[in-house]
Structure formats: structure tokens, C-alpha cells
Amino acid sequence: xxxxxxxxxxxxxxxxxxxxxxxxxxxxxxxxxxxxxxxxxxxxxxxxxxxxxxxxxxxxxxxxxxxxxxxxxxxxxxxxxxxxxxxxxxxxxxxxxxxxxxxxxxxxxxxxxxxxxxxxxxxxxxxxxxxxxxxxxxxxxxxxxxxxxxxxxxxxxxxxxxxxxxxxxxxxxxxxxxxxxxxxxxxxxxxxxxxxxxxxxxxxxxxxxxxxxxxxxxxxxxxxxxxxxxxxxxxxxxxxxxxxxxxxxxxxxxxxxxxxxxxxxxxxxxxxxxxxxxx
Length: 279
Fold this sequence. Notes:
Blueprint: H1 11-27, E1 32-38, H2 44-57, E2 62-66, H3 74-83, H4 99-110, E3 120-121, E4 126-127, E5 142-147, H5 166-171, H6 176-186, H7 188-193, E6 198-203, H8 210-225, H9 235-241, H10 243-255, E7 262-266, E8 272-277
Parallel strand pairs: 1-5, 1-6, 2-5, 6-7
Antiparallel strand pairs: 3-4, 7-8
């Protein structure tokens, strides 16, 4: 199994990512939105937290927003599962997020307002109550917007025909679920991602590492939430869960490096193998 997720990112990664923040602040007045994309367990949240710490040390008002915190409620996903496709009950793919909420949050931050930041409780697989949402500072200059498919673009429709794994072959044989997700990504998600000023990709060495990385996250969640938390997955649950993400994760790893402002190619232990900046 890969090394556990470190509490702090590699200094080379943090330096490269914060260079994007500095660049954004120099070029823009008002709010700079830094997008961080990466597969599950790649260290996005760790990097985002470290960027916020650096902003605090430099007296730059900043906030973090995770795409995960924009998931639809369990009840909303249950409705999608009944009306559209059963696989939409599982959080993850485009179409299972509240894009309008994300746009509302970013718009409020751009206006300089002290905006409540949504939070999703993965242990309960549901959105946390608004009373548990932290509030971003007024006059925010930097937002770190991180998520597994932040900044992603839709696939060509022809690429959707053949299933990519057993989940798609057995539970989405006609392709309705993957078409729905792809069409959602082509719609409101592109408006949301258009708010990103600088985009960084934490590029896993391949999809094959995601199982180990996700298992580490589940162990951390179990330790934090207790063994009886309903949303914590075992190995079989993780193996099934990550299949929901496989198609788009593989596409991102192939497509995004050519256009991201920063691509950090990671080893299995999440150390940087290469740091590539777009000129």
C-alpha cells in the first residue's frame, strides 16, 4: 500500500502552487480563484489547507471550497436514482453536485461578502446543516477550489460507447448514466469552472493507485468519525465506489496536462516526479 497522506504537502508542491496564487493576485484586483484538480487521495485538501496557511501568514483574506462540499443531499440523490438512473444515488460524478450553490458561493465571495461555505459530511453521506458551515472572511482575495474533477471537460460522445469497467458494463449497459454525467459536465459545470483563474493538476501516476489512496482516506475517516459511521467504506465498498470515478479520472489524466497552468506529476508516495508549468 502507498505511504499515508502526509499532514503537510511536499514543499516543492506548495511552492509551485502558491506561485499561481501570487501570479493571480498580481494580475487581478478582487478575487482570485485557484482550482486544484486531482484523483481521490492525491493530496488536494492537504495542499489547499497549506495554501490557506500561507495566505494567513501573509495577511491575505482567503477561503477554501471543495467540490465535495457541493454534493446534492442524500434525498436529492435518491430522487435522481429513482427518476434518472440508480447509479446517481452514489455521490461523485457530474450531475450529483449542486452547481447553482457553488456559483452562488463564488459570486458572493467575488462581491466581498462574508459567505457561508457549504460542508458535506461523508461519514453520514449527506450535506451538513447550515449551522455547521464556516463563514469566509469579508473581502476575500483568494479562494482555493479543489476537487477530483475541478476544471474537467466533457468527453466526446463517441468515447462513451464502450464501458470502461465492470460497473459500467453491468449496471450501465445502455450508457444512460455515463451520458447523463457527461452532459451535466458539459453544462452548468463549465460555467462553474469558468470562474477559475489558475488551474493546478495533481497528476496521479495512474488510476491504479487510487484504490490504495482512497483506502487511506477511509481509514482516516473511520478514526475521526468512529467505527459505526454509516458512510465509511470497507475495501469492497471502495473498490466499487472508485469505479464511478474511473472514466473521468483517466480522461483528466490524459487531457488536462496540456492546458492546466501547473501539472505536478506524483509518484505513488505523492512526492513530485515532475513539475510542469504552462508558459
